[in-house]
Protein backbone atom coordinates (compact mmCIF):
# COMPACT_ATOMS: atom_id res chain seq x y z
CA UNK A 1 0.00 0.00 0.00
CA UNK A 2 3.08 2.21 0.22
CA UNK A 3 2.13 3.92 3.47
CA UNK A 4 4.92 5.89 5.19
CA UNK A 5 7.49 3.81 7.05
CA UNK A 6 6.84 5.72 10.27
CA UNK A 7 3.49 3.91 10.55
CA UNK A 8 5.12 0.49 10.92
CA UNK A 9 5.88 -1.27 14.21
CA UNK A 10 9.36 -2.12 12.97
CA UNK A 11 10.27 1.56 13.22
CA UNK A 12 9.38 1.51 16.95
CA UNK A 13 7.87 4.99 16.84
CA UNK A 14 4.60 4.15 15.10
CA UNK A 15 2.39 1.12 14.72
CA UNK A 16 -0.96 -0.29 13.68
CA UNK A 17 -3.85 -2.34 15.00
CA UNK A 18 -6.99 -3.92 13.54
CA UNK A 19 -10.09 -2.15 14.82
CA UNK A 20 -13.71 -3.34 14.49
CA UNK A 21 -14.76 -0.49 12.15
CA UNK A 22 -13.59 2.81 10.73
CA UNK A 23 -15.70 4.56 13.35
CA UNK A 24 -13.69 2.89 16.11
CA UNK A 25 -10.45 3.94 14.45
CA UNK A 26 -11.53 7.56 14.10
CA UNK A 27 -12.82 7.61 17.69
CA UNK A 28 -9.59 6.29 19.20
CA UNK A 29 -7.55 8.70 17.08
CA UNK A 30 -9.75 11.57 18.24
CA UNK A 31 -9.32 10.57 21.90
CA UNK A 32 -5.54 10.50 21.42
CA UNK A 33 -5.63 13.87 19.64
CA UNK A 34 -7.66 15.39 22.46
CA UNK A 35 -5.20 14.04 25.02
CA UNK A 36 -2.28 15.51 23.08
CA UNK A 37 -4.06 18.87 22.85
CA UNK A 38 -4.65 18.89 26.61
CA UNK A 39 -0.98 18.05 27.23
CA UNK A 40 0.12 20.92 24.98
CA UNK A 41 -2.18 23.36 26.75
CA UNK A 42 -0.90 22.30 30.16
CA UNK A 43 2.62 23.10 29.06
CA UNK A 44 1.46 26.66 28.48
CA UNK A 45 -0.77 26.90 31.54
CA UNK A 46 -0.34 24.53 34.48
CA UNK A 47 -3.70 25.56 35.94
CA UNK A 48 -5.77 24.41 33.00
CA UNK A 49 -8.47 21.88 33.85
CA UNK A 50 -9.17 18.88 31.66
CA UNK A 51 -12.86 19.61 31.94
CA UNK A 52 -12.55 22.62 29.65
CA UNK A 53 -11.94 20.22 26.78
CA UNK A 54 -14.03 17.34 28.09
CA UNK A 55 -17.24 19.30 28.47
CA UNK A 56 -18.01 19.58 24.77
CA UNK A 57 -16.41 18.86 21.42
CA UNK A 58 -17.72 21.02 18.61
CA UNK A 59 -17.83 19.49 15.14
CA UNK A 60 -17.40 21.64 12.05
CA UNK A 61 -17.88 20.20 8.57
CA UNK A 62 -16.14 22.20 5.86
CA UNK A 63 -15.24 21.58 2.24
CA UNK A 64 -11.62 20.60 2.77
CA UNK A 65 -11.08 20.63 -0.99
CA UNK A 66 -10.91 24.39 -0.48
CA UNK A 67 -7.92 24.64 1.84
CA UNK A 68 -8.44 28.36 2.43
CA UNK A 69 -11.84 27.51 3.93
CA UNK A 70 -10.22 25.06 6.34
CA UNK A 71 -7.59 27.61 7.35
CA UNK A 72 -10.22 30.29 7.89
CA UNK A 73 -12.45 27.99 9.96
CA UNK A 74 -9.57 26.96 12.23
CA UNK A 75 -8.45 30.56 12.67
CA UNK A 76 -11.98 31.63 13.60
CA UNK A 77 -12.10 28.90 16.25
CA UNK A 78 -8.71 29.94 17.61
CA UNK A 79 -9.87 33.57 17.79
CA UNK A 80 -12.84 32.43 19.90
CA UNK A 81 -10.52 30.72 22.37
CA UNK A 82 -11.31 27.25 21.04
CA UNK A 83 -8.66 24.65 20.23
CA UNK A 84 -8.87 23.11 16.74
CA UNK A 85 -7.09 19.84 17.49
CA UNK A 86 -8.46 17.20 15.10
CA UNK A 87 -8.94 17.29 11.33
CA UNK A 88 -10.24 14.38 9.24
CA UNK A 89 -9.32 14.27 5.56
CA UNK A 90 -10.69 11.63 3.21
CA UNK A 91 -9.21 9.39 0.55
CA UNK A 92 -12.18 7.55 -0.90
CA UNK A 93 -14.68 7.59 1.95
CA UNK A 94 -18.45 7.14 1.86
CA UNK A 95 -20.60 8.86 0.88
CA UNK A 96 -19.21 10.38 -2.36
CA UNK A 97 -15.78 8.67 -2.32
CA UNK A 98 -13.83 11.84 -3.06
CA UNK A 99 -10.16 12.51 -2.27
CA UNK A 100 -8.83 15.52 -0.37
CA UNK A 101 -5.52 17.24 -1.13
CA UNK A 102 -3.36 16.17 1.81
CA UNK A 103 -0.33 18.13 0.60
CA UNK A 104 -2.33 21.35 1.02
CA UNK A 105 -4.27 20.46 4.18
CA UNK A 106 -1.22 19.10 6.03
CA UNK A 107 0.67 22.40 6.44
CA UNK A 108 -2.49 24.07 7.76
CA UNK A 109 -2.83 21.38 10.43
CA UNK A 110 0.85 21.77 11.36
CA UNK A 111 0.36 25.51 11.84
CA UNK A 112 -2.34 24.89 14.47
CA UNK A 113 -0.66 21.77 15.93
CA UNK A 114 -3.77 19.82 14.93
CA UNK A 115 -3.86 16.05 14.54
CA UNK A 116 -4.52 15.12 10.88
CA UNK A 117 -6.37 11.84 10.50
CA UNK A 118 -6.73 10.34 7.01
CA UNK A 119 -9.86 8.27 6.48
CA UNK A 120 -9.32 5.90 3.55
CA UNK A 121 -11.92 3.38 4.69
CA UNK A 122 -12.95 2.40 1.15
CA UNK A 123 -10.30 3.91 -1.13
CA UNK A 124 -7.33 2.62 0.86
CA UNK A 125 -7.51 -0.73 -0.93
CA UNK A 126 -6.78 1.02 -4.24
CA UNK A 127 -3.34 2.04 -2.99
CA UNK A 128 -2.21 -1.53 -3.52
CA UNK A 129 -1.99 -0.39 -7.14
CA UNK A 130 0.91 2.02 -7.78
CA UNK A 131 -1.19 4.00 -10.26
CA UNK A 132 -3.43 5.29 -7.44
CA UNK A 133 -0.68 6.24 -5.00
CA UNK A 134 -0.27 9.83 -6.24
CA UNK A 135 -3.60 10.47 -4.48
CA UNK A 136 -1.69 9.90 -1.21
CA UNK A 137 0.62 12.85 -1.82
CA UNK A 138 1.02 14.66 1.50
CA UNK A 139 0.36 11.57 3.64
CA UNK A 140 3.56 12.40 5.55
CA UNK A 141 1.64 15.19 7.32
CA UNK A 142 -0.86 12.74 8.81
CA UNK A 143 -0.81 11.53 12.41
CA UNK A 144 -3.08 8.53 11.82
CA UNK A 145 -4.57 6.58 8.93
CA UNK A 146 -7.48 4.15 8.63
CA UNK A 147 -8.55 1.76 5.89
CA UNK A 148 -11.16 -1.00 6.03
CA UNK A 149 -10.44 -4.23 4.12
CA UNK A 150 -14.02 -5.32 4.78
CA UNK A 151 -15.22 -2.57 2.46
CA UNK A 152 -13.22 -3.39 -0.68
CA UNK A 153 -10.59 -6.05 -0.09
CA UNK A 154 -12.45 -9.38 -0.11
CA UNK A 155 -12.57 -9.49 3.70
CA UNK A 156 -15.80 -9.98 5.60
CA UNK A 157 -16.96 -7.61 8.35
CA UNK A 158 -15.45 -6.51 10.64
CA UNK A 159 -11.86 -5.55 9.83
CA UNK A 160 -10.56 -1.97 9.86
CA UNK A 161 -6.88 -1.08 10.19
CA UNK A 162 -5.67 1.93 12.16
CA UNK A 163 -2.09 3.21 11.84
CA UNK A 164 -0.62 5.90 14.09
CA UNK A 165 2.58 7.87 13.66
CA UNK A 166 3.46 8.16 17.37
CA UNK A 167 2.15 5.25 19.38
CA UNK A 168 3.38 6.63 22.71
CA UNK A 169 1.27 9.73 22.25
CA UNK A 170 -1.61 7.57 21.03
CA UNK A 171 -1.48 5.12 23.93
CA UNK A 172 -1.10 7.78 26.60
CA UNK A 173 -4.80 8.63 26.43
CA UNK A 174 -6.02 5.05 26.03
CA UNK A 175 -3.91 3.02 28.44
CA UNK A 176 -5.60 1.51 31.50
CA UNK A 177 -2.99 0.59 34.09
CA UNK A 178 -4.93 -1.24 36.81
CA UNK A 179 -2.95 -3.69 38.99
CA UNK A 180 -5.04 -6.68 37.90
CA UNK A 181 -4.02 -6.01 34.30
CA UNK A 182 -0.30 -6.07 35.03
CA UNK A 183 0.87 -9.43 33.78
CA UNK A 184 4.21 -10.60 32.47
CA UNK A 185 6.02 -7.72 30.78
CA UNK A 186 5.69 -7.87 27.01
CA UNK A 187 6.99 -5.65 24.22
CA UNK A 188 3.57 -4.55 22.99
CA UNK A 189 0.27 -4.72 24.90
CA UNK A 190 -2.43 -4.44 22.25
CA UNK A 191 -5.19 -4.29 24.88
CA UNK A 192 -4.63 -0.55 24.99
CA UNK A 193 -5.00 0.00 21.25
CA UNK A 194 -8.79 -0.37 21.22
CA UNK A 195 -11.72 0.83 23.32
CA UNK A 196 -12.50 -2.70 24.65
CA UNK A 197 -9.79 -4.46 26.64
CA UNK A 198 -10.41 -7.68 24.73
CA UNK A 199 -10.44 -8.18 20.98
CA UNK A 200 -11.32 -10.77 18.39
CA UNK A 201 -8.74 -12.59 16.28
CA UNK A 202 -9.46 -10.53 13.15
CA UNK A 203 -6.01 -10.75 11.60
CA UNK A 204 -6.29 -14.36 10.44
CA UNK A 205 -9.05 -13.67 7.90
CA UNK A 206 -7.05 -10.82 6.37
CA UNK A 207 -3.95 -13.02 6.31
CA UNK A 208 -5.86 -15.71 4.39
CA UNK A 209 -7.13 -13.15 1.86
CA UNK A 210 -3.58 -11.97 1.19
CA UNK A 211 -2.21 -15.52 1.11
CA UNK A 212 -4.95 -16.80 -1.21
CA UNK A 213 -4.90 -13.92 -3.71
CA UNK A 214 -1.40 -12.48 -3.50
CA UNK A 215 -0.55 -8.89 -4.37
CA UNK A 216 -1.09 -9.41 -8.10
CA UNK A 217 -4.47 -11.04 -7.56
CA UNK A 218 -5.66 -8.21 -5.32
CA UNK A 219 -4.39 -5.59 -7.76
CA UNK A 220 -6.24 -7.28 -10.63
CA UNK A 221 -9.41 -7.37 -8.52
CA UNK A 222 -9.19 -3.65 -7.71
CA UNK A 223 -8.37 -2.67 -11.29
CA UNK A 224 -11.28 -4.70 -12.66
CA UNK A 225 -13.72 -2.84 -10.41
CA UNK A 226 -12.26 0.54 -11.35
CA UNK A 227 -12.43 -0.19 -15.08
CA UNK A 228 -16.01 -1.43 -14.78
CA UNK A 229 -16.96 1.72 -12.86
CA UNK A 230 -15.50 3.77 -15.73
CA UNK A 231 -17.50 1.63 -18.15
CA UNK A 232 -20.67 2.42 -16.19
CA UNK A 233 -19.75 6.12 -16.21
CA UNK A 234 -19.50 6.04 -20.01
CA UNK A 235 -22.93 4.44 -20.26
CA UNK A 236 -24.42 7.19 -18.08
CA UNK A 237 -22.83 9.93 -20.17
CA UNK A 238 -24.47 8.51 -23.30
CA UNK A 239 -27.95 8.92 -21.80
CA UNK A 240 -28.95 12.58 -21.52
CA UNK A 241 -31.51 11.75 -18.83
CA UNK A 242 -28.72 11.04 -16.34
CA UNK A 243 -25.61 12.76 -15.07
CA UNK A 244 -22.55 11.69 -13.09
CA UNK A 245 -22.36 13.84 -9.96
CA UNK A 246 -18.79 13.29 -8.71
CA UNK A 247 -15.56 12.25 -10.37
CA UNK A 248 -15.17 8.48 -10.53
CA UNK A 249 -11.96 7.46 -8.77
CA UNK A 250 -12.65 3.91 -7.65
CA UNK A 251 -15.35 1.24 -8.00
CA UNK A 252 -18.28 3.48 -7.04
CA UNK A 253 -20.25 5.80 -9.32
CA UNK A 254 -22.41 8.59 -7.88
CA UNK A 255 -25.11 9.61 -10.34
CA UNK A 256 -28.67 10.88 -10.54
CA UNK A 257 -31.56 11.24 -12.90
CA UNK A 258 -31.89 14.82 -14.15
CA UNK A 259 -34.77 16.26 -12.20
CA UNK A 260 -35.99 16.57 -8.63
CA UNK A 261 -34.81 14.62 -5.59
CA UNK A 262 -38.27 13.06 -5.39
CA UNK A 263 -37.85 11.71 -8.90
CA UNK A 264 -34.54 10.08 -7.94
CA UNK A 265 -36.04 8.63 -4.76
CA UNK A 266 -38.81 7.07 -6.83
CA UNK A 267 -36.24 5.67 -9.24
CA UNK A 268 -34.22 4.06 -6.45
CA UNK A 269 -37.37 2.67 -4.85
CA UNK A 270 -38.45 1.21 -8.17
CA UNK A 271 -35.07 -0.45 -8.81
CA UNK A 272 -34.67 -1.95 -5.35
CA UNK A 273 -38.30 -3.10 -5.19
CA UNK A 274 -37.77 -5.11 -8.36
CA UNK A 275 -34.98 -7.07 -6.62
CA UNK A 276 -33.10 -7.28 -9.92
CA UNK A 277 -30.18 -5.23 -8.60
CA UNK A 278 -29.71 -3.19 -5.45
CA UNK A 279 -28.42 0.37 -5.27
CA UNK A 280 -27.82 2.74 -2.37
CA UNK A 281 -28.19 6.49 -1.94
CA UNK A 282 -26.65 9.43 -0.14
CA UNK A 283 -27.09 13.17 0.16
CA UNK A 284 -24.30 15.66 -0.57
CA UNK A 285 -24.53 19.44 -0.82
CA UNK A 286 -28.28 19.18 -0.37
CA UNK A 287 -28.65 16.87 -3.36
CA UNK A 288 -30.01 13.32 -3.40
CA UNK A 289 -27.55 10.96 -5.11
CA UNK A 290 -27.78 7.33 -6.22
CA UNK A 291 -24.71 5.11 -5.79
CA UNK A 292 -23.69 2.26 -8.08
CA UNK A 293 -21.12 -0.04 -6.50
CA UNK A 294 -19.22 -2.72 -8.37
CA UNK A 295 -18.99 -5.32 -5.62
CA UNK A 296 -19.17 -8.75 -7.24
CA UNK A 297 -15.67 -10.24 -7.29
CA UNK A 298 -15.97 -11.70 -10.80
CA UNK A 299 -18.05 -8.91 -12.35
CA UNK A 300 -17.72 -8.41 -16.10
CA UNK A 301 -18.60 -5.69 -18.59
CA UNK A 302 -21.65 -7.75 -19.55
CA UNK A 303 -22.86 -7.57 -15.94
CA UNK A 304 -22.48 -3.79 -15.95
CA UNK A 305 -24.44 -3.47 -19.20
CA UNK A 306 -27.19 -5.68 -17.78
CA UNK A 307 -27.41 -3.54 -14.64
CA UNK A 308 -27.51 -0.36 -16.74
CA UNK A 309 -30.39 -1.68 -18.87
CA UNK A 310 -32.33 -2.38 -15.67
CA UNK A 311 -31.70 1.17 -14.46
CA UNK A 312 -32.77 2.61 -17.81
CA UNK A 313 -35.93 0.52 -17.83
CA UNK A 314 -37.00 1.79 -14.41
CA UNK A 315 -36.03 5.35 -15.30
CA UNK A 316 -38.35 5.21 -18.30
CA UNK A 317 -41.23 3.95 -16.16
CA UNK A 318 -40.67 6.58 -13.48
CA UNK A 319 -40.44 9.40 -16.02
CA UNK A 320 -43.65 8.20 -17.65
CA UNK A 321 -45.37 8.33 -14.28
CA UNK A 322 -45.97 4.58 -14.15
CA UNK A 323 -45.92 3.75 -10.45
CA UNK A 324 -46.62 0.05 -10.98
CA UNK A 325 -42.89 -0.63 -11.01
CA UNK A 326 -42.55 0.63 -7.43
CA UNK A 327 -44.72 -2.23 -6.13
CA UNK A 328 -43.09 -5.42 -4.93
CA UNK A 329 -43.85 -8.48 -7.06
CA UNK A 330 -46.56 -10.64 -5.51
CA UNK A 331 -44.77 -13.85 -6.42
CA UNK A 332 -41.09 -14.59 -6.48
CA UNK A 333 -39.50 -16.59 -9.29
CA UNK A 334 -38.35 -20.15 -8.53
CA UNK A 335 -34.97 -20.28 -6.73
CA UNK A 336 -33.22 -21.75 -9.76
CA UNK A 337 -34.21 -18.75 -11.85
CA UNK A 338 -33.13 -16.08 -9.39
CA UNK A 339 -30.06 -14.09 -10.32
CA UNK A 340 -27.39 -14.82 -7.71
CA UNK A 341 -25.21 -11.89 -8.79
CA UNK A 342 -26.17 -8.85 -6.78
CA UNK A 343 -23.76 -6.37 -8.29
CA UNK A 344 -24.49 -3.45 -6.03
CA UNK A 345 -24.39 -3.64 -2.27
CA UNK A 346 -24.29 -1.21 0.61
CA UNK A 347 -20.87 -0.24 2.02
CA UNK A 348 -20.94 0.24 5.75
CA UNK A 349 -18.38 0.82 8.39
Automatic annotation (TrEMBL):
It comes from the Eukaryota. Coiled coil: none annotated. InterPro entries: Aromatic_deC, PyrdxlP-dep_de-COase, PyrdxlP-dep_Trfase, PyrdxlP-dep_Trfase_major, PyrdxlP-dep_Trfase_small. Residues 322-349 are annotated as: Disordered. Transmembrane segments: none annotated. One of its GO terms (biological process) is amino acid metabolic process. One of its GO terms (cellular component) is cytoplasm. Keywords: Decarboxylase, Lyase, Pyridoxal phosphate. It holds the Pfam family Pyridoxal_deC. One of its GO terms (molecular function) is pyridoxal phosphate binding. Residues 340-349 have a biased composition (Polar residues). Its cofactor is pyridoxal 5'-phosphate. Belongs to the group II decarboxylase family. This is Aromatic-L-amino-acid decarboxylase. The lineage of its organism: Eukaryota, Metazoa, Ecdysozoa, Arthropoda, Hexapoda.
